[in-house]
Write a structure and sequence with these properties.
422 residues; mainly alpha; hpI Integrase, Chain A; two-stranded antiparallel sheet; Site-specific integrase; DNA integration; DNA_brk_join_enz
């Protein structure tokens, strides 16, 4: 994308608009994720200016200038040096260095989109080279939603839905306010159902939602949900349609959500997009195809506080949310629920973590064979991904064996629950 802004624009001028875009709340001023990113961007700015690092090094600015860092000062080599700084001189743990670099990379991508930079330097392999290597990580080290994280997230979406639903039912009947409250209740119900499906079905997010690069993956529809039988029909990773289970915790969120949204037909997506721009373009074009004038379309839209509600009334079927959209929703919900997550790739509860978390439950409770069937994977692959569970169980068995056969006394360190050193 060609640069649309001057190369001598100070770097710092981009921070506030970017942070507002990723922030929480009406003005984009809040959110745990925003605070973390803001802190790291300011650290990067100080480093570029030579105010961070060993002995306040000169940074990347020319020696004969005292101006603030500008976008023309950034290059692939600058990002490489900062990656080296994160990995070494700053003394960060491996996953923390990766996370902080990811914050910087996200801002850089935004700067390319907005025309501040010509290229996404942070993504280049040469720039990322000095970062800690992930090749040695055990499968069990990859993100999996813990019971505490899962509980905190589901508790939040329950609370959020209850609040919005109460506001909807308490609003004056047949009023614009009630329509508006219904929209927020539907959105909260959709978010709750999405969280429960991801957390407990272990269905891959690509099997639930739309992938713009694959026309076969157009997203789950209501005709493919059988709440009574407790099953979903999804297009699997192995390129064929198959049935997935709906465990009991998922049933009520889906049932309540469907009753609230009242889809005009079973061909509606279960998790539709709520993008105002996308929905606005959709209803205008579809109503125009039906012969309505621009004035008539404007009147219809004025009668509905949201284009999504107009689409429901007119049976204008929107697209499903995309897989990227689901990640955005989970990032927003993780932040709103004040869940502190940090790994090398994500600072939020990612969709694949929900699947892995369910895998943990099944392997520990029923073994690899049952888990493989539920996860739609081979038993060999499940064993490989959850070897840490088997290692822990073998350790427990070894401990029992030692106690039964060897009768070696359990050692106690002096001063730590044992006798004091003399």
């Amino acid at each position: 994308m060609p640069r649309s802004k001057s190369a001598d624009t100070p770097i710092e001028t981009s921070f506030e608009p970017y942070l507002k875009d990723i922030g929480k709340g009406r003005d984009g001023e809040g959110g745990h994720y925003r605070r973390n990113v803001e802190r790291e961007l300011n650290h990067f700015l100080e480093w570029v200016a030579g105010e961070r690092g060993p002995d306040n090094q000169t940074g990347v600015l020319p020696d004969d200038t005292s101006r603030n860092p500008q976008f023309e000062d950034l290059s692939e080599s600058v990002y490489r040096e900062y990656a080296r700084y994160l990995a070494g001189e700053r003394g960060l743990k491996q996953n923390t260095a990766q996370t902080y670099y990811a914050y910087l990379s996200s801002w850089t991508g935004w700067c390319v989109t907005e025309g501040y930079l010509d290229a996404h330097y942070a993504k280049r392999s040469t720039a990322r080279g000095p970062l800690p290597d992930d090749d040695g990580r055990r499968p069990g080290d990859q993100q999996a939603w813990s019971p505490d994280d899962r509980h905190q997230l589901t508790e939040y979406v329950i609370q959020r839905f209850n609040e919005t639903y109460d506001e909807y039912t308490e609003a004056e009947p047949n009023s614009l306010e009630r329509l508006s409250k219904r929209y927020y209740a539907i959105k909260a119900a959709r978010d709750r159902a999405l969280v429960y499906v991801i957390a407990y079905t272990a269905v891959r997010v690509g099997e639930l939602l739309r992938d713009p690069s694959d026309p076969r993956r157009r997203g789950l529809r209501w005709e493919e949900v059988n709440i009574e039988d407790g099953s979903l029909t999804v297009y699997r990773k192995k390129q064929q349609w198959d049935t997935a289970s709906l465990p009991k915790p998922v049933i009520q969120p889906l049932k309540t959500y469907r009753k609230l949204i009242e889809p005009p037909s079973d061909r509606w997506p279960v998790f539709p997009t709520f993008s105002p721009r996308t929905l606005g373009e959709l209803v205008r074009s579809k109503l125009a195809e039906r012969g309505l004038t621009e004035e008539e379309i404007a009147d219809r839209r004025d009668d509905h506080p949201r284009d999504f509600l107009l689409a429901l009334d007119e049976d204008i079927r929107p697209d499903s949310m995309t897989t990227k959209g689901a990640r955005n929703v989970l990032e927003r919900l993780t932040d709103a629920a004040d869940i502190d997550i940090s790994d090398s790739n994500h600072s939020y509860l990612a969709p694949h973590g929900g699947r892995r978390g369910m895998g943990e439950i099944l392997v520990r409770s029923f073994g690899y064979t049952v888990a493989a069937r539920y996860l739609d994977n081979s038993e060999e692959m499940v064993r490989e991904r959850y070897t840490h569970i088997e290692a822990g169980k073998l350790g427990d068995m070894a401990t029992e064996g030692i106690a039964d056969i060897d009768s070696v006394p359990i050692s106690q360190d002096a001063g730590v629950g044992g006798e004091e050193e003399v």
